[in-house]
Design goal:
Elements (H helix, E strand, L loop, with lengths): L13 H10 L3 H17 L4 E6 L4 E6 L7 E8 L2 E6 L20 E5 L8 H12 L13 E6 L11
Parallel strand pairs: 1-6
Antiparallel strand pairs: 1-2, 2-3, 3-4, 4-5
Length: 161
Amino acid sequence: MTARRTSKKPGQTAAAEVATLIARYDPAVVRLARAARAALRKRFPTAVELVYDNYQFLALGFCSTERASDCIVSLAVSPKGVALSFYRGASLPDPDGILLGAGNQNRFVRLESAAVLATRPVAALLRAAVAQARTPLPETGRGYTVVKSVSAKQRPRRPAR
């Protein structure tokens, strides 16, 4: 995945801005977020990575286009850890019962390590999410990163001590 797009900050690449956004968390969360992001970038090399640094979470979405509605899966980074979020998770088959959440659309899996992404149940969910995508991932080419928004008001990125 390349940082073809620039960030919201003049003179800074999207890759540099994302690295800075991730680095604001506790070291354990930083390591997990970086490892999970690298694993998803390897799994989805043609995906567009959309980055939203919102009030509560840093969201790194892996999408088939630059539209958030075409997001297949994302990482939600918070001071408490990292979750793998499925944009249309409520409609995914989950025979192992690992998906959490009760919303109408989104479901997630808490990641204790990046190795969770390679487990059979999570790999099956990732395949199902790709299969049900409204817009398929490009078969060729390389993905890139787009920093879509960075909220001015945010919760602390490290837990209170």
